[in-house]
C-alpha cells in the first residue's frame, strides 16, 4: 500500500493553487511532476561537481564523469540491459527514434518495408516516413479496432521477409492501450525484422526488461518518469549499435580524426557526440531510484485502482464517450462529451485548477480513425488521488452545464 499523502509531500508543485483552486494535475502523459529529491539533485550537481565529462584529468571532471556513468549503470539495472554501453543517453524518445531511423536507412532498400502501428505518436511515424523517402522503403501500418487495440492477426499477415523493422509503442499516449510487445517482437524476429519499442509512456508505469522482451531498441523520455526535460535513454542491442552508423558527428564520438579519415569511438560514445545534458543524465538516475524505491508493482496496482475509479466516475456523466477502451490499459482516460468540443472542456476545467490535455495528442491518425477532432485526456500518476478524480468529474459536469 502506498502512503499517497507522504508521496505527495515530495512534490512541491502539487500543493499549489492554480486559478485560485488546489491544483489537480492530470496531464502526466505529457510530462510528470518532479519530486524534491530530483529538484535537489539538479541543484546539488551544479553546486558541487559541475564540470565537463570524459575529458578532464581534474577532480571535478572525474566526479562528474563518475556520477554520469553511475547513472548509466542505474538505468542498465533498471531495464536489465546486458551491458551499460547498450544504454545511450539521449534528449528523449524523439531523439532516440530519430537516431535509429536515421542510421537504419543503411538496411532498407527500395521495396523493403518499415512497419509501424495505427496508434503511434508522431515521433514514431515521421522519422520512419523520412527514412522511406530517402530509401524507397514502404511504410506499412498495423491497423487497430474500435477499442483501440492492435489487430494482431493483421499484423501477422502483414509481416514478411520484406519487413526490415517494426516500430510500435509499448503504451499508447492517446488511448492508454498496453500493446502485446513481447508477441510482436517474437513474430517480427521470426521473419528477420528488427524491433524498436517506443517506451515513452511505459517508463513511468512499468519496468521494461529489455533482455526478456528481446527488443532491439527501446526508447524512453526521462521527463515522463519524474526526471528532467531534455533527458532520455535509447537502449540498443550491442549487435545493432555496432552495425548502425553514428547519428551526429563531433567531439566525444571519435577515436581518431584526420582530414583524410575519422574512426569512431566505442559504444556508447559513438552515439553521444558533443557535451551532453550532464546534470540531466545524472538526475535521470535519481528519478529512477525514486520510482524504484516506491516500487513499480505498487505504482501499477495503485494506478489501476485510479483508472477503474476514474472510468466508473466519468461514466456517470451524460453523453460520456470514452475513446480507447482496450482490455489492457494504462492510467490514461481519453474522452469526449457528446456535442461539446474537447478544447472547451479543457479550458473550463482549467479555470477550476484542473490540468488535462485536449487535442490530438500528437496522434492525428488516431483522431482520424475515430473521426473526432480530438479528446480530453486525463492521465493519472501514482501521486494522484480519488478525490482529485471526483473534482474532475464535478468540473466536467459543470462545464457541460455551462456549454449546453
Ligand atoms: N512516443 C509517445 C508514445 C509519447 O507519448 C511521446 C511524448 N508525448 C513521445 C513518443 C515523444 O516523447 P518526447 O517528446 O519526450 O521526445
Automatic annotation (TrEMBL):
Keywords of this entry: Pyridoxal phosphate, Transferase
Entry similarity comment: Belongs to the class-V pyridoxal-phosphate-dependent aminotransferase family. Csd subfamily.
Aminotransferase class V domain boundaries: 24-392
Pfam families xref list: Aminotran_5
Role according to the record: Catalyzes the removal of elemental sulfur and selenium atoms from L-cysteine, L-cystine, L-selenocysteine, and L-selenocystine to produce L-alanine.
Organism this protein belongs to: Flavobacterium arundinis
PROSITE patterns hit by this protein: AA_TRANSFER_CLASS_5
Protein name: Cysteine desulfurase
Enzyme Commission no: 2.8.1.7
Uppermost EC category: transferase
Signal peptide: none
Catalysed reactions listed for this entry: (sulfur carrier)-H + L-cysteine = (sulfur carrier)-SH + L-alanine
Required co-factors: pyridoxal 5'-phosphate
Organism superkingdom: Bacteria
Gene3D superfamilies (UniProt xref): Aspartate Aminotransferase, domain 1 (3.90.1150.10), Type I PLP-dependent aspartate aminotransferase-like (Major domain) (3.40.640.10)
Gene Ontology terms for molecular function: cysteine desulfurase activity
Amino acid at each position: 500500500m502506498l502512503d499517497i499523502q507522504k508521496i505527495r509531500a515530495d512534490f512541491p508543485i502539487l500543493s499549489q493553487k492554480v486559478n485560485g483552486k488546489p491544483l489537480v494535475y492530470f496531464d502526466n502523459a505529457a510530462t510528470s511532476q518532479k519530486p524534491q529529491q530530483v529538484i535537489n539533485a539538479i541543484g546539488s550537481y551544479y553546486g558541487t561537481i559541475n564540470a565537463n565529462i570524459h575529458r578532464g584529468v581534474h577532480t571535478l571532471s572525474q566526479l562528474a564523469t563518475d556520477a554520469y556513468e553511475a547513472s548509466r549503470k542505474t538505468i542498465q539495472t533498471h531495464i536489465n540491459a546486458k551491458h551499460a554501453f547498450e544504454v545511450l543517453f539521449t534528449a528523449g524518445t524523439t531523439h532516440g527514434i530519430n537516431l535509429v531511423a536515421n542510421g537504419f536507412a543503411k538496411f532498407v532498400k527500395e521495396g523493403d518495408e518499415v512497419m509501424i502501428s495505427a496508434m503511434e505518436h508522431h515521433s514514431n511515424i515521421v522519422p520512419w516516413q523520412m527514412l522511406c523517402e530517402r530509401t524507397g522503403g514502404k511504410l506499412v501500418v498495423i491497423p487497430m479496432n474500435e477499442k483501440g487495440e492492435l489487430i494482431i492477426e493483421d499484423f501477422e499477415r502483414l509481416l514478411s521477409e520484406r519487413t526490415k523493422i517494426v516500430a510500435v509503442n509499448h503504451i499508447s499516449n492517446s488511448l492508454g492501450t498496453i500493446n502485446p510487445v513481447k508477441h510482436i517482437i517474437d513474430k517480427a524476429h521470426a521473419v528477420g525484422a528488427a524491433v524498436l519499442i517506443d517506451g515513452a509512456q511505459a517508463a513511468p508505469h512499468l519496468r521494461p526488461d529489455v533482455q526478456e522482451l528481446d527488443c532491439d531498441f527501446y526508447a524512453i523520455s526521462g521527463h515522463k518518469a519524474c526526471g528532467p526535460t531534455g533527458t532520455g535513454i535509447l537502449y540498443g542491442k550491442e549487435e545493432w549499435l555496432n552495425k548502425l552508423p553514428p547519428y551526429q558527428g563531433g567531439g566525444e564520438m571519435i577515436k581518431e580524426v584526420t582530414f583524410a579519415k575519422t574512426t569512431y569511438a566505442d559504444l556508447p560514445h559513438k552515439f553521444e557526440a558533443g557535451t551532453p545534458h550532464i546534470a540531466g543524465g545524472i538526475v535521470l538516475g535519481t528519478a529512477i531510484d525514486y520510482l524504484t524505491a516506491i516500487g513499480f508493482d505498487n505504482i501499477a496496482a495503485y494506478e489501476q485502482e485510479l483508472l477503474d475509479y476514474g472510468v466508473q466516475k466519468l461514466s456517470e456523466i451524460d453523453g460520456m464517450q470514452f475513446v480507447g477502451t482496450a482490455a489492457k490499459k494504462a492510467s490514461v482516460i481519453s474522452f469526449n462529451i457528446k456535442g461539446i468540443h474537447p478544447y472547451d472542456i479543457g479550458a473550463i476545467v482549467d479555470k477550476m485548477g484542473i490540468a488535462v490535455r485536449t487535442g490530438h495528442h500528437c496522434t492525428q491518425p488516431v483522431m482520424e480513425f475515430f473521426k473526432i477532432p480530438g479528446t480530453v485526456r486525463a492521465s493519472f500518476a501514482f501521486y494522484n488521488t480519488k478525490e482529485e478524480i471526483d473534482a474532475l468529474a464535478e468540473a466536467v459536469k459543470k462545464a457541460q452545464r455551462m456549454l449546453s
